[in-house]
Amino acid sequence: MIYKENPTSPDFANAPCSGQSPLFDDHLRGETAADRAARLSVATRLCHDCPCRQPCDALRRTQHHPTGVWAGRIYLDRRRH
Ligand code: SF4
C-alpha cells in the first residue's frame, strides 16, 4: 500500500503493489468475505519479497488508521469489518 500513499516516489516505483491498489485495499464493494480473504492472501504474498518492505512498514507506523495491506500485514478498517 505504500505506493498508493507515495505514487510519485521513485523509491517505491518498483514495489509489487505499484499500480495494484485494488488488490491491496482492505475493502472492495460487493466482495464476499471469502473473496476478500483470497485476494488479500495474494497481496500479502507479493509483499514477502518486496524490496520496500521496511520503509513500507515505517510509513505504516506514521498513518493514523492504516488500512489495507502494508508490509505483508492486513489492516482492516474496523468501521467496516
Ligand atoms: S511491502 Fe507490500 S504493501 Fe509494502 S510496498 Fe511492498 S508490496 Fe507494497
Topology overview:
Blueprint: H1 2-5, H2 21-24, H3 33-48, H4 53-62, E1 68-70, E2 73-75
Antiparallel strand pairs: 1-2
Iron/sulfur cluster binds at residues 1-3, 12, 15-17, 24, 46-47, 50, 52-53, 56, 69-72.
Structure, described:
The chain is mainly alpha-helical and 81 residues long. It has one domain. It has four helices and two strands, in the order ααααββ. Strands 1-2 form a two-stranded antiparallel sheet. A hairpin with a 2-residue loop joins strand 1 and strand 2. The radius of gyration is 12 Å and the shape is globular. It starts with a helix and ends in a 6-residue tail after the last strand. Iron/sulfur cluster binds next to helix 1, helix 3, helix 4 and strand 1.
Quick tags:
globular, 42% helix, two-stranded antiparallel sheet, mainly alpha, 7% strand, 81 residues, binds iron/sulfur cluster
Tell me how many strands there are.
2
Instruction: List the strand order in the largest sheet.
Output: 1-2
What coarse outline follows from CA principal-axis ratios?
Answer: globular
User: Multimeric state of these chains?
Assistant: single chain
Question: Which small-molecule species are bound to the chains here?
Answer: iron/sulfur cluster
**How far is it from the N-terminal to the C-terminal residue, by CA?**
19 Å
Report the radius of gyration as a whole number of Å: 12 Å
How can the largest sheet be summarized? 2 strands, antiparallel
Q: Please tally the helical runs, counting DSSP H or I stretches of 4 or more residues.
A: 4
The averaged pLDDT comes out at 87
* Percentage of β-strand residues: 5-15%
Sheet/helix structural class = mainly alpha
- Percent helix range: 40-55%
